[in-house]
Amino acid sequence: DRLTQSLLYLDGVSVSFDGFRAINDLSFTVEHGEMRAIIGPNGAGKTTMMDIITGKTRPDEGTVLFEGTVDLTRHDESDIARLGIGRKFQKPTVFESHTVEDNLELALKRDHGILSTLFSDTSAEQKARIDAILDTIRLGHRRADLAADLSHGQKQWLEIGMLLAQDPKLLLVDEPVAGMTDAETVETARLLREIAGEKAVVVVEHDMTFIRDLDVKVTVLAEGSVLAEGSLDHVSADERVIESYLGR
Ligand code: ADP
User: Fold this and answer.
1) Tens digits of per-residue pLDDT, 49-86?
2) Measured in angstroms, how far is the CA atom of residue 196 from the centroid of ligand 1?
3) Where would I find the ABC transporter domain in this sequence (predicted)?
């Protein structure tokens, strides 16, 4: 049926911290190749939701299924990464003292450890993958430069490239445009739109101009539950959404 065809399926998910219900009966579905945006005020539960999907936090109740059959609540973080869920945190974690190209190579051969990676041959196939990723993240002209010399935006794109090297089926991206220039923000929307389709992408973001650029279905989270879902125009016209952002 439809559920087992969805890439990610959350139903009736709840989690409490010391009696405080951070996620409350949350349901959320992502289809293969679909891009989605999650918005919501501070404390809405966005981070906790991503933590549940990636196995960092185990829900008290509810169903979390990947590819229809894999119960993510039974797997730990490294299992879930291997299953094909990549997560990009807000702060870039590129290797500053390595070149752009070496960073991608490290990500591609991640399971082999840093030393053997830097001293092992790169196959023609791996080189082609690196070239393709450099194209996607538009950093081909910076491939030989140290990651330390990239702009803040370029570092974020490099990190997205490093996640792509792991070939995930689902990418979770936390506030990708925080601290970016307007031009970098526009470029990031283009990049994510290009990735979507091939991979599913869930973006957590506050920047409404950016979300409008993404042109995706938006889920508004408040007090651990879905408050509204639909186009940005649809959710931003919702009285409860306006209230939850402006406060009562
Ligand atoms: P958001 O990312 O939308 O700002 P969070 O998921 O970080 O929201 O937090 C949701 C709520 O859960 C907040 O009230 C936060 O204080 C609480 N919370 C999150 N993680 C923990 C934790 N490990 N222990 C206790 N409370 C937590």
Assistant:
1) 999 999 999 999 999 999 999 999 999 999 999 999 99
2) 28
3) 8-248
Task: Look at residue 206 in the predicted model and tell me its pLDDT.
Answer: 87
Residue located nearest, by CA, to atom 22 of ligand 1 = 17
**105 Cβ contact partners less than 8 Å away, ≥ 6 residues apart:** 117, 118, 122, 126, 130
Helices (H), the chain: 2-5, 46-53, 77-83, 100-108, 114-119, 124-136, 152-165, 182-195, 208-214, 232-236, 239-246
What separation in Å is there between the alpha carbon of 140 and the centre of ligand 1?
Answer: 39
Name the residue of 13, 15, 16, 17 to mutate for ligand 1: max ligand atoms within 8 A of Cβ. Answer: 17
Cα 189 to ligand 1 centre (Å): 27
Q: In whole angstroms, how large is the CA radius of gyration of the chain?
A: 19
Cβ 146 vs Cβ 199: under 8 Å: no
Distance 46 CA to ligand 1 centre (A): 8
Are 176 and 188 spatial neighbours (Cβ–Cβ below 8 Å)? yes
Element (H, E) at 220: strand 217-222
Q: Which two three-digit tokens encode residue 124?
A: 């023609």
Instruction: Render pLDDT for 174-214 as a digit per residue (tens, 0 to 9).
Output: 999 999 999 999 999 999 999 998 999 999 998 999 999 99
User: Measuring from atom 17 of ligand 1, which residue has the nearest CA?
Assistant: 22
The pLDDT tens digits of the residues spanning 80-108 come to: 999 999 999 877 789 999 999 999 999 98
Is residue 248 pLDDT above 50, yes or no?
Answer: no
